[in-house]
Design brief:
Blueprint lengths: L2 H43 L3 E7 L7 E10 L4 E4 L15 E6 L7 E11 L4 E6 L21 E6 L3 H4 L4 E12 L12 H9 L3 E5 L11 E3 L6 E6 L2 H6 L10 E5 H10 L2
Antiparallel strand pairs: 1-2, 1-4, 2-3, 3-6, 4-5, 5-6, 7-8, 7-10, 8-9, 9-12, 10-11, 11-12
Length: about 270
């Protein structure tokens, strides 16, 4: 091998070693970078996350927590799960549908809302603030951009009636994008709701490698790098379909893709 060829070979080895070192450094730094992004993003997320429930001054407690919601659109629209909302409001007893905007204390500020749109088949609902100032809104991501393995985070009120009105954040990944209706191996495992969904209304949901709790229903699932909402946590509707044959529900968390919220907002009056 000539001297020139030896120099070229050595230069190639040095380039490959340098590339390996840079790749290793990037991979080991990625978790720290994701955490740093989340630290920067959260102050802009938490003011938009609210507790959803009913309020009646004469009962104790006056506020009954039902789930989480988050502000979208013009700052007067609240997105949540349809199952979070009560079937009826006892307005004759001065009961109201409300949100609680967390404050520095555990009480927060109670704001009255009204229902403007809902879609039971996707378990999504939109509320509107009645009077007062608008709230900071979260940005919804573009549709069909989510990939399996990507980092996510969500903020809400896990077991809110017990732990109080303090927004809590969890992080993980999208572990799968999966149909909400899964054909069962035995016809005895099918139920009427699953049959209807398999026949007419199959759609995909996000399976998350992160733990959501009762009270997290309606929480925004967002990209920790940008803060854009990519889905809505669902703890009842999806599990009732995907895990209908289990006597004890799994600890898997699910989310409804944001594309369905885009559609619902587009149809809201």
């Amino acid at each position: 091998m000539s001297a020139e060829q030896q120099r070229a070979a050595h230069a190639g080895i040095r380039r490959r070693v340098l590339q390996s070192v840079c790749t290793f450094a990037a991979l080991t730094a990625f978790p720290a970078l994701a955490r740093a992004n989340l630290v920067d993003i959260l102050p802009g997320i938490k003011p938009s996350v609210v507790a959803v429930g009913t309020y009646q001054r004469t009962r104790s407690p006056a506020f009954q927590f039902r789930g989480t919601g988050f502000v979208v659109g013009d700052g007067r629209m609240i997105a949540t799960n349809a199952h979070v909302l009560p079937e009826a409001i006892a307005s004759e007893n001065m009961e109201m549908l409300v949100i609680v905007v967390p404050g520095k204390d555990q009480q927060g500020t109670v704001r009255q809302v009204s229902r403007v749109a809902s879609e039971r088949s996707r378990d999504l609902a939109v509320l509107r603030l009645e009077g007062g100032e608008a709230l900071p809104a979260l940005k919804l991501a573009a549709r069909e951009r989510v990939q399996e393995g990507q980092e996510i985070a969500f903020t809400g009120f896990p077991i809110g009636a017990v732990l109080g009105m303090t927004p809590v954040t969890h992080r993980g990944i999208v572990s799968a994008i999966t149909p909400i209706g899964i054909p069962q191996g035995n016809s005895r495992d099918l139920n009427p709701a699953l049959i209807r969904r398999l026949a007419n209304d199959v759609f995909r949901v996000y399976q998350l490698d992160a733990t959501a709790y009762p009270g997290n229903s309606g929480s925004p699932v967002f990209d920790p790098k940008t803060g854009e909402v990519i889905g809505v946590i669902n703890m009842v509707f999806v599990k009732s379909t995907k895990e209908s044959v289990l006597s004890d529900p799994s600890g898997i968390s699910y989310a409804i893709p944001v594309e369905y919220l885009h559609r619902l907002l587009g149809n809201a009056p």
